[in-house]
DNA sequence: ATTGTACACTTAACAGTGTTAAGTTGCGTG
DNA sequence: CACGCAACTTAACACTGTTAAGTGTACAAT
């Protein structure tokens, strides 16, 4: 952990420049619609330079996804700390998750919907990534509800995944099926979360 | 609606051959990983021939998605007719939906997850497609539950979309996050549907 | 101060993509 | 038989991700 040389600092700086450009383009136009050449153009380097900092295009995507996970995890951590009632914390956490997706649809797609698995690293495991942190916070919220005997269910893992699935379902449908005549978004979110919570109450 | 000439029949036959080849490849390897040239090779025609029958690659995808919707709609129609209890019908319908996705993951991805919207026909509306039929069956099942006063909610549309979102959430998570340590699939499906139903009961 | 070399970066190329314009073939009708 | 139309193919364009080879320059050692 010694002091970084100038070279090392410059390397990291350019890496960040590339990441910034890629993130902006991916979020604006979607992963598939952005070419390495476009990213290179934006940062005024040759396309191959990117390959000196990232293995390939998918690695770029992964780096950006990790950031997204981290942001989401931080947000959910704050919510859990601020909330008083465990059930309220759970609901707020789920709401934050959905709203995060709706606010950053392309980012959400990148991370949770289109997430293509790397052919070179096929065993990349989400459970070893920052994504697990966000999941962990949801899990903790569920655990608190169960411990305080607010729910009749006892399988923390299953309940957590149920809430995640519900949140993800709403988010991804709203994002990808733009033209479908959905009812009011907030109504849908609240009704789903409230119904699940009601169904779990003793 | 006169008798079809031989030419017309031949045209339709080749169209079907193309569709069959494309479906098989798409389902096996995913939309993005199949090229027009590969499809052409499989049917032993030149790549450009396909363009005499379909506008572009996405049109091929759409044609296949419509088939998927039709199959799913048929299945849900049968379930609804066979079931005796409206709540049981709703649960069975949702289960069929999820199982359909798990059994044909690439097909499900094509239709409900990656469904890219056509740049040339940006206003392609899912609500005008066969997909609406499948949705209609789900809606009818919910309507029956509400009419027979099994649920305290009255917004048919919202409740339908809630079940759809839950089913879609489970399905797409299970399909796309293969490496995540999910609990038993059937447990997750049943728990989610049962919890929603319990939460809706009077 | 000069050399050697490691590193950052670029150029050129490969093999592939979706798609189109222009050409070729062969069948059915006048 | 000759014409025209339709089916189909060949060749090409403009792109894609990615790699091998080449260029130049800043720094360390002599």
Characterize the structure shown.
The structure is a homodimer of 202-residue chains. Chain A is mainly α and 202 residues long. Chain A is built from nine helices and no strands. Chain A has helices spanning 6-29, 36-43, 47-50, 57-82, 86-103, 105-113, 131-147, 156-176, 185-200. At the A-B interface, helix 8 and helix 9 of A face helix 8 and helix 9 of B. The structure holds a DNA duplex (30 and 30 nucleotides).
Shape category of chain A: elongated
**How many distinct beta strands of chain A?**
0
Q: What is the element string of chain A, with H for helices and E for strands? A: HHHHHHHHH
Structural class of chain A: mainly alpha
Quick structural summary:
2 copies of one chain form a homodimer. With 202 residues, the first copy, chain A, is mostly helical.
Note the main attributes of this structure.
mainly alpha; 9 helices; DNA-binding; 202 residues
Give a topology summary.
Two copies of one chain form a homodimer.
Chain A: H1 6-29, H2 36-43, H3 47-50, H4 57-82, H5 86-103, H6 105-113, H7 131-147, H8 156-176, H9 185-200
Helix pairs in contact in A: 1-2, 1-4, 1-6, 4-5, 4-6, 4-7, 5-6, 5-7, 5-8, 5-9, 7-8, 8-9
The first copy, chain A, binds a DNA duplex (30 and 30 nucleotides) through helix 1 and helix 3.
